[in-house]
UniProtKB/TrEMBL annotation:
It comes from Sphingobacterium anhuiense. Belongs to the GntP permease family. InterPro entries: Glcn_transporter. This is Gluconate:H+ symporter. It is a multi-pass membrane protein.
Length: 442
């Protein structure tokens, strides 16, 4: 009965989002209420579970996600992202142009949401394509592979941050493991796979503004080193805060307390915002008012993502309070399949049905949470296995599929042969890297 309700709940969620076109947040709420009733939860307990689910998830996530959105917005609007791109292309030269664009996508993709990074960097791809007479898909896919992988694996992106909170993983450890796992996924799915795409060309030429024209003439574009530092500032702080306690051998509780405080993800993002506001804003001639307008826009951009994550928290809480989590954990542990592979597979199936990587990851988390609570699986690896599954085979029900197709002027067939296969490659390689890391650390 329990498994039947879970399967029906997931099926209903998929139908509501894909066929009925109902907003993902409302779909989560509807399915959570129906699931709670079918599972026999007392009605007053069901209402409490809904309220508790939203509060428990958003209480630990909202500040990180909002501050992360602000950082990405000012990196984009200040011209720092374009400065990074120009430097990477210049360093690599024409021979290694794919690798330069891949590194650009990786660095810029850490603070920027995927959609923002895509729209911001596609003009660069076409500018280089025209300049060096190279196919746009061939040189551009490595950059987009890097953007996609950071979206699925690396905090402070919404999905990894939400999963870290749900599985009670350490943010810094997840970031370090995510960087290790992302590296082979990006290399194989980017430049190596991209070498096979030289013959895929757009049906029509697309023209974009030269890089840098989006930045207003009243403001200076930040220098290269400031652009790199502001974009990677939270990464540096999180890694330092995670590694330092293992390097410094001290019994000073006050010092350890300060180290833990400074490495807290919320404080890290706050410090990153303050640094970016000054270095990318005030120092470049922007007023406090104009910087705050950028931050206000970032909050508006992320509002619906916050609601979707809140909805997934409700679903998770109903699964827990109804007793399903315990029963499901006992059942899943009897399956002859590695828990990390199972997590990847369930997420990949939901991703294929729904299309949204974020919604797929958060939906799967509500079902898979019991697997990580038994202590047999490292929570950070569970986060990354789900992240890998959420990237699996983007196709016609994914907005990213159509974004790539239309910008690059491709047919559906060529989009499947390039974009969709690239997403499948980074997903599978990500899973293999997670399994390899699991063998090393356990």
């Amino acid at each position: 009965m329990i498994l039947t309700v879970i399967v029906l709940s997931l099926f209903l969620l998929i139908v509501l989002i894909t066929q009925a076109k109902i907003n993902a947040f409302l779909s989560f709420l509807i399915v959570s209420v129906i699931s709670g009733i079918l599972l026999g939860m007392p009605l007053d307990s069901l209402i409490l579970a809904i309220e508790k689910g939203i509060g428990s998830v958003m209480g630990s996530l909202m500040l990180i996600l909002v501050l992360g959105a602000m950082l990405g917005k000012i990196v984009a609007d200040s011209g720092a992202a374009e400065r990074i791109a120009a430097v990477m292309v210049q360093l690599m030269g024409e021979k290694y142009i794919q690798w330069g664009l891949m590194l650009t996508g990786f660095i810029v993709g850490i603070p920027l949401f995927y959609g923002v990074g895509f729209v911001l960097l596609v003009p660069l791809i076409f500018s280089i394509s025209y300049r060096y007479k190279l196919p746009a898909v061939y040189i551009g896919l490595p950059m987009l592979a890097a953007l996609s992988v950071t979206h699925g694996f690396i905090p402070p992106h919404p999905s990894p941050v939400a999963l870290v909170a749900l599985f009670h993983a350490d943010m810094g450890v997840t970031l370090i493991y995510g960087l290790l796992i992302a590296t082979p996924a990006i290399i194989i799915g980017g430049p190596i796979f991209g070498m096979t795409l030289r013959n895929i060309r757009p049906k029509h030429e697309l023209f974009f503004k030269p890089v840098g024209t989006e930045v207003g003439s009243d403001y200076r574009v930040p220098s290269a080193w400031i652009s790199f530092l502001a974009s990677l500032f939270p990464v540096f702080l999180l890694i330092i805060g995670t590694v330092l306690p293992y390097v410094i051998d001290t019994d000073n509780e006050k010092l350890l307390s300060w180290m833990k405080f400074i490495s807290n993800p919320t404080l890290v993002m706050l410090l990153a915002i303050l640094f970016a506001g000054y270095s990318l804003g005030i120092k470049q001639g922007r007023s406090i008012k104009s910087i705050m307008e950028i931050f206000d826009g970032a909050v508006r951009d992320i509002a619906m993502i916050l609601f979707i994550i809140a909805g997934s928290g409700v679903f998770k809480q109903v699964m827990e309070d109804s007793g399903v989590s315990l029963a499901l954990a006992n059942y899943l542990q009897t399956l002859p399949i590695h828990p990390l592979v199972l997590a990847w597979l369930i997420t990949a199936v939901i991703r294929g049905c729904i299309g949204s990587a974020t919604v797929a990851a958060l939906t799967a988390a509500g079902v898979l949470l019991p697997l990580a609570t038994g202590g047999h699986i490292h929570p950070s690896l569970m986060v990354l296995a789900i992240g890998a599954g959420s990237l699996m085979f983007s196709h016609v029900n994914d907005a990213g599929f159509w974004l790539f197709k239309e910008y690059f002027g491709l047919s559906v067939k060529d989009t499947l042969l390039s974009w969709s296969i690239m997403e499948a490659i980074v997903s599978v390689v990500g899973l293999l890297a997670v399994l390899a890391l699991d063998m090393i650390i356990t």
